[in-house]
Design goal:
heterodimer; A: 142 residues; mainly beta; 3-stranded antiparallel beta sheet; 10 strands; 0% helix; B: 268 residues; alpha+beta; 7-stranded antiparallel beta sheet; 5-stranded antiparallel beta sheet; 40% strand
Chain lengths: 142, 268
């Protein structure tokens, strides 16, 4: 993995609609980066959902939180992003799915940006510890 | 239009579906909502009835026009014209029906029954929530009132439909699939000028999902009802439910899990 590729960790795979996705975005540091050609401007973290299936794709991307990296190119930044209360919950149906993900993107000068995505599950309000269907599996095991 | 405001620690939310709910602000979880909500069901007509009726009316109208244009004199001139007008009437009636198809009065007149109302309690619909739905319908024609003398039941079907729209070349197509279909039937009791039946409606938490309205992907819930007698198809009516993305935890605890559903018969 390139040292400019961000890494995402989440506190919980399951987030209630209207709640917050909490986690950390990290970069290992400047080792291996050529500072003249691959200088990191910032790392942006945002939420996204999109549909997948028979129908045309519907997608939404939330506003991004931006983080400045350290002088050596490393980063350890906790983030908290809101899942809108009127947004759809994760869904796995017959004709389509609704998938949520956290995107982290490293903005590199004169290079293509590096991007990482991590899926998580949006559940109904009050669903923590109870809601098992229809999107029962955490993203890691899919 | 959507608005919300806070009163003494409670948030009042009004959304486009005209739902009113009370949400406690301390833990972010909705508190008890208004006890009940009454919805007037919209009548539905079988598509095949409309198509067959429309084709027959058009054929009759064409014959009528041909008869109207026949020549002749005296009675041989008037009789075909009179018959032609008679044959054109069904098409005119059908066009008038189509033009006023949303008119409850016309539909009620055709069926002999007022549009039913369904009172849901508790309200609003949530995942895993079991609601009592009181179905009320007034008989407005003598024939419908006579029907009340016999035993009449109410059939209901709760369905969750996925709806998608996709593009193939320049064509836009839609596809639907019912992911939940649960039927039940109950006996109705006669009240002063109509009938009343109590249905139990459970929104499952393990199938379907909350109501979803995206541009190309949707989830809709509906409760289809009809009277259970030989011409009951004409009394079919539909209530669309806006299911909130809230899990009714109290119902789940009462049922011992997230299974949901207490209906005597479950469909596909």
């Amino acid at each position: 993995m390139s040292p400019a590729t961000p890494h995402i960790e989440l506190d919980d795979w399951f987030v209630e609609v209207g709640g917050q996705v909490r986690g950390r975005v990290t970069l290992p540091g400047a080792e291996g980066i050529d500072p003249t050609t691959e200088r990191i401007r910032e790392v942006r973290v945002s939420l996204r959902y999109e549909t997948d299936g028979r129908g045309d794709r519907d997608r939404w991307t939330g506003s991004a939180q931006a983080f400045d990296v350290n002088v050596d190119g490393s980063l350890y930044a906790p983030f908290a992003l809101e899942v809108p209360a009127d947004a759809p919950i994760s869904y796995d149906g017959s004709l389509f799915r609704v998938c949520w993900a956290v995107d982290a993107q490293t903005d590199l000068r004169t290079r293509l940006d590096r991007k990482t995505s991590l899926e998580f599950v949006v559940i109904p309000v009050g669903g923590h510890g109870h809601y098992r269907q229809p999107h029962p599996l955490p993203p890691m095991s899919r | 239009m959507t608005w919300d405001f806070s009163v003494d620690g409670l948030t009042v939310i009004n959304n486009p579906a005209d739902k009113l709910q009370w949400a406690a602000m301390d833990d972010g979880r909705p508190a008890p909502a208004p006890a009940s909500h009454v919805i007037e069901a919209k009548p539905t007509v079988a598509r095949v009835v409309v198509i067959v009726g429309g084709v027959l009316a058009v054929v009759a109208a064409v014959v009528g026009v041909l008869l109207w244009n026949r020549g002749g004199s005296g009675l041989s001139y008037l009789a075909p014209r009179f018959l032609g007008v008679l044959l054109m009437l069904p098409l005119l009636a059908l066009l008038a029906t189509a033009a006023t198809s949303r008119s409850a009065t016309l539909t009620e007149r055709l069926t002999g029954w007022a549009n039913p109302t369904v009172e849901f309690s508790p309200w609003p619909p949530r995942l895993g929530r079991t609601m009592t739905a009181v179905y009320r319908r007034r008989a407005i024609s003598p024939r419908a009132r006579r029907r009340l003398q016999t035993s009449v039941g109410v059939e209901a079907e709760l369905a969750c439909e996925e709806w998608v729209q996709y593009t193939v070349g320049t064509d836009t197509r839609t596809e639907t699939h019912d992911v939940v279909k649960r039927r039940s039937a109950v006996a109705a009791s006669t009240v002063s000028d109509g009938l009343e039946a109590v249905l139990v409606v459970t929104i499952p938490s393990d199938a379907g999902g909350p109501t979803l309205e995206l541009d190309h992907n949707r989830i809709r819930w509906r409760l289809d009802t009809r009277l259970s007698h030989p011409s009951g198809k004409r009394t079919a009516a539909r209530v669309e439910l806006q299911v909130e993305p809230v899990l009714d935890v109290d119902s789940l605890i009462g049922e011992g899990g997230a299974a949901g559903g207490t209906h005597p018969e479950a469909g596909s």
